[in-house]
Amino acid sequence: MGFKGSTNDTLYQFIWDGNSYRYGHNNSYPKLNITGIPDDADTSSFSMLYGQEHYRLYFRQLGNPTKLYEFIWDDADTNSFSMLYGEEYYRVYFRQLGNPNKLYQFLWDQEAESYVPGPALPISGFPDDTDWSRWSMLNDGNDYRIYAFKLGSNTEFYQGAWNGSEYKYGYKSANCQVLTLENIPPSCNLASMAMLHDGSEYRFYMQSL
Q1: Which residues pair with 159 in a beta bridge?
Q2: What are phi and psi of 161, to 5 degrees?
């Protein structure tokens, strides 16, 4: 890693390719932006580590070598998200950026009045042609379920469920691994979806164009 010029708000990233550290190797993010830097952060030196599923960056406080500022790499794909309620918590989910096999979970903390991070959740078994730009989740009272469209289709979508350790394609889905939409109004915006279970019915939603 190295800072961009003297701005101190951007990092250049180099990845080991087996022979040398190469800039932008292996489809990595070549430039990483740093936001929210306190005015009294000493950006003349820094260190980094990977721990607890996050990349972390540290600066010292100016004039105080005993205090560190910590920054965590936000690799959640915020282009889409899903929400549900279960086990006394409102929950928000984001996929990991570039990785369809991991979900980030946030739980509503009433005292903090904010959503706080929960454990990351793995996903497995979904077909290679799953369109993860169009996905949703719900809790039907018995199972936490996850859905995503089939790539190139506006009528077929896949189903999986939480099996206690991961969201597994086809789990608790019997003969309903692939679900279909029928009688779609022509004014539907097919770019996104939302789903819920209200205690009696599974419901699917799309916005209008």
Answers
A1: 147
A2: -150, 160
68 with 126, same domain? no
| Cα Rg of the chain, angstroms | 21
pLDDT digits over 135-169, tens only? Answer: 999 999 999 999 999 999 999 999 999 999 999 99
Domain that holds residue 200: 76-205
Residue among 42, 43, 72, 69 nearest 58 (CA): 69
Which helix or strand (DSSP H or E) is residue 81 part of?
A: strand 76-86
96 within 8 A of 104, measured Cβ to Cβ: yes
Structural domain count, the chain: 2
* C-alpha span between 116 and 122 (Å, rounded): 18
Q: What is the pLDDT of residue 28?
A: 67
- pTM (2 decimals)? 0.74
Encoded tokens for 96: 């990991």
Q: How are strands ordered across the β-sheet holding 41-51?
A: 41-51, 54-61, 64-72
**DSSP letters for 29-61:** -SEEE-----TTEEEEEEEEEEETTEEEEEEEE
With CA atoms as reference, report the closest residue to 205 among 175, 78, 185, 129.
185
Which band of pLDDT confidence, cut at 50, 70 and 90, is reported for residue 67?
Answer: very high
Return all residues near 109 (Cβ < 8 A) that are at least 6 apart.
115, 116
